[in-house]
Amino acid sequence: MYYGGFGNIMSGYFLSYWYYLIIVGPALVFALIAQSRVKSNFNKYSRIRNSRGITGAQAAQAVLNYYGITNVAIECVNGKLSDHFDPRSNKIRLSQEVYSSASIAAVGVACHEAGHAAQYANSYLPIKIRNNILPICNIGSTLGIPIALIGLFFSEPIGGFLTTFGLILYSLVSVFQLVTLPVEFNASRRAIKVIEETSLLYDDEVGGAVKVLKAAALTYVAALATSLANLLRLVLLFSRRNNRS
Length: 245
Description:
245 residues; mainly alpha
């Protein structure tokens, strides 16, 4: 019995390792490639000054003006690529290399964040859905796996219920990543629309901003792929253990 139990433990360990390598591994490689593209595109176009000399802060303000938004402030914060819109304080926070820079990349990033402010101002449905499910998704990411593991210590039907319930909770991480995609894509579309219609960038410069924003969007696709791959790995592992119990 002892050697059999030890063999089962080692078998489960190696199976977990191979599931991670085969299922999650490619998604992680995809995520690394996406992150690399963000950095390379941002670095490239952050070195190219736009023809009008528009800074990131000015570009963000232009988007706010376009949508008639008057209650959102723009401020400079520390950090690299730490740009974001905070709906709680109604502030667009831009990193130093975006806020005061007149590069093509700075305009694209700043307009994207202002695009999020426009989503809130226009009651964009996907961002409402994302905000409403965020609390339960945070609970799922924290408690999902512990609950599934506790289920392994109980016999059926309690054990199976706890394991299934835990995995369902954990799957909400993927749901959140899925809902995030249209939010990010829409913010970029709003940004490019304002850039083109108000001529913040000239025609030959718009393509650079598009490349920066597309590279950033790819990181959200990679995050979804990684969460789905990890969820599949866990489902396979837990279902195997339940079948052997």
